[in-house]
């Protein structure tokens, strides 16, 4: 199987778009067959995690988030050594960027609209200095259609201050009109990658399809951003020793003899309940 496919991009244009919109993407970064294996790994991890306390956390009705061990994802090394990902991370976060999180978000039929939100409070580097210090890469496990609760993002909101919002993450409903006006739904296909500032305001939408829509999530920080403390990636010695040097340089993890189930530390309370679709 060929993991990567043929692709071209203009890094200067990508950087400009990320600065302007807070989100960019690369079509056909991987083959559909590679993405199909990723989906298998995601769903295997989900069904294992949902059976243990703290293994899966709610992100709204019929929607869960699960952190996984890198080794549970056959394509992990392919992903973190992808030329586009390395190029974006280096240019945005600097040469010593840190890979701090790997997980998956899974909405099922019956998932509701999420409230507009960002993933964590904005640091002063971003809301004052307009500097992006963390990135979230997403890869879909299915070709997304309108009834699959597509991801909706409000471009250009990554620099919003947000200190007056609930938990500094959830704008009051009286402010939603602005995000609704900007709202853009995304319909990625298997093999595509998107990259966004985790501070760009977004939400999941209503999922009516009987087909689940698993999405792989990779979190990357600039040095000092601090989100590694919310996660606990573990790998075994043999697996770590086999990593290419570029992966060892950037992966923040513990090397352990035995992998233990992950109990998640980053629970977003405000997403537990659904929201009205306005």
TrEMBL record:
State the superkingdom: Bacteria
Instruction: Provide the alphabetized UniProt keywords.
Output: Dioxygenase, Oxidoreductase
The record's Gene3D superfamilies line, in alphabetical order, gives: q2cbj1_9rhob like domain
| Alphabetical list of SUPFAM superfamilies matching this protein | Clavaminate synthase-like (SSF51197)
Name one molecular function that GO assigns to this entry: dioxygenase activity
Question: What is this protein identified as?
Answer: Phytanoyl-CoA dioxygenase family protein
The record's listing under InterPro entries reads: Fungal_Metabolite_Diox (IPR051961), Phytyl_CoA_dOase-like (IPR008775)
